[in-house]
Amino acid sequence: MSREARLERLLDFLHRSPTPWHAVSTMAERLDAAGFRRLDESQAWQLAPGERVYVTRNGSSIVALQLPHEGLEALRMVGAHTDSPGLRLKPHAAQTAGGWLQLGIELYGGVLLAPWYDRDLGLAGRVHVRHPDGRLEGVLLHVDWPIAIIPSLAIHLDREVNNGRAINAQTQMPPVFLQGGDKADLQRLLLEWLEAQHGISGAEILDFELALHDVQPPALVGVERELVASARLDNLLSCFIGLEALLESDGSQGVVLVANDHEEVGSASACGAQGPFLGDVLRRVNAQLGEPGDEGFIRLIQASRMISCDNAHALHPNFTDKHDAAHGPALNGGPVIKVNANQRYATNSATSALFRDVCREAGVPVQTFVTRADMGCGSTIGPITATELGVPTLDVGVPQWAMHSIRETAGASDVEYLTRALVAFANRPRLA
């Protein structure tokens, strides 16, 4: 598999995945093309050893499985999340001021706000409609051209802006959308876009979940094209790498890829890592292919391992003092093992040792990240999944800059490094 071909697939995936629903839809397309069978949670399952299957929940979370050919004894699990911080539309989004139709927004997750100013913004998400025959349907919408912008205030009107000021998301972040428009125009435009994209006409919009997104396409940046720059690298990059590894695994072992929604807002939902989605799927699989009952399920989980993949903070050349001197991961330096004594990451010495051995086997360099002792630490789905399932877990990730910005940056070589490590993990005969 060439590095260039993988990076081109990555850029395409990022472009086609402006929301968690689009990301899951795009992942499902690749799984379908690779021969995976889609399961329905509301129906009875009939599973066979060696099968490749997947299931979605809420259209925004997905679990895909390569079932082992012989004996469900241990699973090699890779976890990621499909959501990213950003700006979501409020239910009654249309508002007017100064002769402009604007869009009322709420913040999703820990958004880095300043980079959203003066960007070309599109609109994407899902819309639920009632057709003239009374049928209800949810469809994806992706307006991938510039339809909105959040203009900065000129420095002449705020001379102290470069000395730092707080941004009020309620009053200073609503994007301008249509000059001279009124509130009814938003509904009209949504219906026009639904007709253009899905051929839907005469329908009534019942509700929507829509988000603004940067329409600047993902790109390889740098003299040697050594950087990947895009929106939503946190954490679509891990979703992509996990999917690549699953598809490249040799099928000899039981492999699971889970990509949950709602990590950026705490994971407490039916399709989030704190919810029952992954456990529900694994219990149904174990009931058919493993040792039945609670004891059999516990034995399966304790024999399995989970690698939670979520990007890590790379050493920033302009802010080197923000890192512990001995734990500043470099872009293109390999995947990062994330450690926190207070369990903000799930890594322990046993799971870390396993990953280091996997990387040795795959010929992949490995790095370590720990926050400065005088700074707080973020978290991932790793500790949550470990708590919910009890599975031994570690946290790793590709190093990146500008986490939670509208455009983030990672190393192009790290995409290949982490993919190779996860393929080696997926194919590994022994986990202990």
From TrEMBL:
> Known EC number(s)?
3.4.11.-
* Keywords (A to Z) from UniProt: Aminopeptidase, Hydrolase, Metal-binding, Metalloprotease, Protease, Zinc
Name a GO molecular-function annotation: aminopeptidase activity
Q: Which chain positions lie within coiled-coil regions?
A: none
InterPro entries reported for this sequence: Peptidase_M18, Peptidase_M18_dom2
Name what cofactor the protein needs.
Answer: Zn(2+)
Carries keyword Hydrolase?
yes
Q: Which family, according to the similarity comment?
A: Belongs to the peptidase M18 family.
Q: What is this protein called?
A: M18 family aminopeptidase
